[in-house]
Amino acid sequence: MSGERHASAEKEGTLHSRILGDLERHILSGDWPPGHRLPFEVDLATQYGCSRMTANKVLTQLARAGLIERRKKSGSFVSQPVGQAAVLEIHDIEAEVRALKLAYAFRLEKRARRVASAKDRLHLELAEGAPILDLTCLHLAGERPFCLEQRLINLATVPEAEAETFLDMAPGAWLISRVPWNTAEHRIQALAATAETATSLGIARNAACLVIERRTWGASGPVTFVRFTYPGDRHALVARFQPGGEGA
User: Fold this and answer.
1) Which structural domain range is residue 161 located in?
2) Model confidence over 121-157: pLDDT tens digits?
3) What is each CA distance from 115 to 13, 110, 118, 124, 134, in whole angstroms?
């Protein structure tokens, strides 16, 4: 009997992953737009041949990720685009600095409209000749450099960015407040500081840096590619998790 229970648990775990993956793809691809009602628990259980408990766990996980909202007696619906942290932990750098009880400021170091290079086109999945805005900002904590931001904005998707000076609001905060997105991708790595980066951040050349690259997409296509470079001895990534009941 214990073997049968183990096999049943394994089957439910596999089905959970399959259902979760299927529903996430429908939502993130735009097949199911904001406001779309998902199948009820009983319908998912019938469709996938799983227990209602498994279907409930999947929907609960999607709700915790901010992808859906569950309404009593009405069902589950794809969430409307809201603050970006609802789907992924995309932090506002100003909030990071103020959480350290330090004064925040930023300085625009570079602003250039140009045609995307071959490397830019890879970052933003653009066609040849696509127009982009190339920005570099230095974020300060107190009087000390906190983070170097190097950002590309796709002007085909965000044409209004061309008229923005970015002198009063940093590019990331400006985009969050004006441009909804539906998919994001993070890449995190440790790199040695180049001479140019070291000068900007006030650190030694080849010093360890934490580099976070992010790409976001909206309904009309790629929105932005950004690289944040932090001095390695002044920044850490912290995440808090809660048990989801699907293994450690």
Assistant:
1) 85-231
2) 999 999 999 999 999 999 999 989 999 999 999 999 9
3) 48, 16, 10, 12, 10
> Could you tell me if residue 101 is left (phi over 0), alpha (psi between -120 and 50 degrees) or otherwise beta?
left
DSSP codes of every residue in 168-181? SS-HHHHHHHH---
Angstrom CA distances, 111 to 105, 152, 165, stand at 18, 10, 8
State phi, psi for 75 to the nearest 5 degrees: 120, -160
Pairing of strands 208-218, 75-78: unpaired
* Residue 118 pLDDT > 70: yes
Buried-state track 83-110, b at ≥16 Cβ within 10 A, e below 16: ebeebbebebbbebbeeeeeebebebee
108, 139 contact by CB (below 8 A): no
SS3 35: coil
Based on the fold, state whether residues 46 and 96 are members of the same structural domain: no
The answer to whether 197 and 231 are in contact (CB under 8 A) is: no
Same domain, 98 and 64: no
pLDDT band at 97 (very low <50, low <70, confident <90, very high): confident
Q: 239: helix, coil or strand?
A: coil
**pLDDT classification of 90: cutoffs 50, 70, 90:** low
Task: Please choose, from the candidates 150, 149, 148, 157, the residue with its C-alpha nearest in 3D space to the C-alpha of residue 125.
Answer: 157
> Is there a single domain that holds both residue 148 and residue 190?
yes
Are 152 and 212 within one domain?
A: yes
The answer to whether the pTM exceeds 0.90 is no
